[in-house]
Batch of 4 targets.
Target 1
Amino acid sequence: MLRIIGGISLLLLVGSATAPEPTLRFNRYFVAAESYESVGVFDVDKNDTLDIVSGDFWYEGPRFRNRHLIGNEPRKDQYYDDFSTIPLDVNGDGRMDFVTGGWFDQTLRWVENPAKKDSQWPLHEIGKVGNVETTRAWDVDGDGTIDIVPNNPNHPLKYIKLVSPGVFKTVTVAPTQGHGLGFGDINGDGRGDLIVSDGWLEAPENRESGPWTLHKEFAFGTASVPIIVTDVNGDRLNDLIVGQGIVMDCTGTNKLATPADNAAGQST
Ligand SMILES: [Ca+2]
Ligand SMILES: [Ca+2]
Ligand SMILES: [Ca+2]
Ligand SMILES: [Ca+2]
């Protein structure tokens, strides 16, 4: 699991109107001294202003000086068991909820944005999916609505689809997966494929009945989430941008992860 150190900050994007070529500049904006594993940005209170949601609080945009308690996530080891903040109105009441999951309790859950502003947000279990490194949201089946894809090393790869308010359906894609996950069209057939640490899974015409064929054309070891799919060199073939995780060796020194490290489950 990757650590996020320090408080929450925003990097603000500022464009220059007079330069012949746009120059991008980022400013750091302090939000809060506390920090959690994950952060999301969406309009919590429906006032057409984006807010920040992270761990036990949401912070009112656009200044983020007012915070509201939404939960009481216990600390486990050096982590909070809360590894994503995917905005999704799960119960269809018009207020944006979010989806998260825990490495330690191996559970995917959604967190309900309540009607009352300063009450805590109820937790709802979606399912036991295996250790949740983090979760991503992609429209895996191409129906125009995001699906939830948790990265669960050494557990089956699946996507989880919201089929009606508060009701999810799980579609299994592969019997196992490593550390790392991406999504994009690799073979140019218009269907998004899933990228795992040891290859890419070709999306079949019927995503639910499969089969998703694994093409072992690379081996990334402890790969990032996400593995980004984009055409880097402009040859109209999608390429991959992948980060490499780090592990701690027995002396406490960081080193690049290897496939052997990944198999041993030592990734951090
Ligand atoms: Ca809702
Ligand atoms: Ca979908
Ligand atoms: Ca494809
Ligand atoms: Ca390319």
Target 2
Amino acid sequence: MVPGVRGMLRAAMLTGPEIRARVQEGLENGRLWRLTHDRARLLGTTEGGPRCHVCSEQISRGQAFGLTRSSAVVLVHLECYMFWLHASGLLEREPITCAGCRRLIPPHAETMAVRGAVYHGRCRDRMAVRAEPMSPIA
Ligand SMILES: [Zn+2]
Ligand SMILES: [Zn+2]
């Protein structure tokens, strides 16, 4: 294995079903609004690990998407934004996220399904050689 791969596999984000639940919860309690023509913009690097407005998890550097709401900018993960779009009826198919890295899987990407969980092909390959893929990093 290549050194450094472990860090990339560390899952900071929630799983797809967990994100879906947060979006539903947010729409019900009013923390989230129904998206219409709101457009998220990739903000790139962010300092200080801001929290995602949907899932409340930290957003790693370079992954923050900004939604302008009135004059404020709301920061979200791309994955959370996609689930939010879907819940708002603006995205026909529910997004699919990888059970390994938790990142979005593009519609035509190579995937591997293992016991109902969907992985990127390469994530599955990596996890197959590791005994405890989700063990915390000491
Ligand atoms: Zn999020
Ligand atoms: Zn993956």
Target 3
Amino acid sequence: MAIRIDWIVFLIIAVALLEGATSETKYKVGDDGGWRVPDNKSYYENWVGGKKFEVGDSLEFNWTDTHNVLEVTTKTEYDACAKTNGILKDTSPATFQLTKDGTYYYICTIGMHCDFGQKVTIVVGNGSSSSPPTSMPNNHAALSAVLSTITIVAASLVHLSSFLLY
Ligand SMILES: [Cu+2]
């Protein structure tokens, strides 16, 4: 019996580790600085720094003064601070889910904010939407589910055998 319980403990730990490995990251854009007209134009570029954005992560834009977030669709629009197409969110906090690989462009459309550097480019995966979606999270989730099921079945068997034996 002791051996079986050890095995179950191992499985529970394995499941916990897998779930930890697949946890989705919620990024607060600009961290404590939030979403604002930055002191220098490379502020958000620096914030992105070496971050590795993955499918399933999300971005949260927080602001207090008058701002908004427009997701523009091309680098050309982004570079020109074009306030035309795209998803506009004007209530803080504004959350964007990163649902697939690609390069995402966000700007503020208020006044000259974007021109002053209130803009950020987020690269998810390899930055290209034409690449096959990352299957790792799904595999992990599936494996995790299987291990959870095994754990439950094993626990039931232990329960059943103790019932039969004693
Ligand atoms: Cu703004």
Target 4
Amino acid sequence: MMQNGGVLTLRRMGAGDLGLVETWLRDPEVARWYLVASTVEAELDDLRQCIGGAEQTEALIAADSSGPIGWCQWYLCDDYPDHAAGVGADPGDAGIDYAIGEPASRGRGVGTALIGALVTYISQRHPQAGVIADPEASNVASRRVLEKNRFQLRGERPVVSEPTSAPMAIYRLPPRPGVLDLPPVLVVVAPRRRAAGTGVGGGPAC
Ligand SMILES: CC(C)(COP(=O)(O)OP(=O)(O)OC[C@H]1O[C@@H](n2cnc3c(N)ncnc32)[C@H](O)[C@@H]1OP(=O)(O)O)[C@@H](O)C(=O)NCCC(=O)NCCS
């Protein structure tokens, strides 16, 4: 549970959020994991494509009572076959990426709540979907928030579709159709606009 007992909301990311996301990407703790083989500009460009519907990934902003605190995204692994093969996704699985951008919000349970909210959001749309995440194996905080949400470790190894040869810790939360044990968060998201995208590239890296 978030330590302030607060409510976490998720809403679709818009172009007006990119300035804030840029600030977050430049934070050393975020850059350390997000910019391993990428740049701020490349990440923002990817997000622009998600926002515009050219990519099949949906980007969301997470906010608590203090305002926006981070972002996350999800996609169907089937839309990114190389990444699906790389992480060994089952058909229909979803993949996720996430970051708490506000330094003061880290280490207070917000990331754990964010994963819970995102899983709920995906389950409501794809009840049969398992959820895959593959943080770098050395990203202990990222692994913990998955484990605290009952993700199961499938293996640790490099993933060819990721921009680094470092070992990734591949986690999967099995589908739990009909079980929507809503976390202590409120999930509020605008309707999805889903254009006919190309699904180019591998699954977005985190
Ligand atoms: C990873 C991240 C989402 C976690 O969110 P958070 O709000 O900080 O996490 P929480 O407070 O919910 O929980 C963090 C857990 O990791 C542990 N942890 C945090 N930093 C740690 C570290 N350096 N070493 C070991 N454990 C650590 C905490 O103790 C806690 O586990 P516990 O409750 O069992 O003690 C957030 O820190 C973040 O966005 N970091 C930068 C970007 C990033 O790494 N994104 C993920 C890329 S895959």
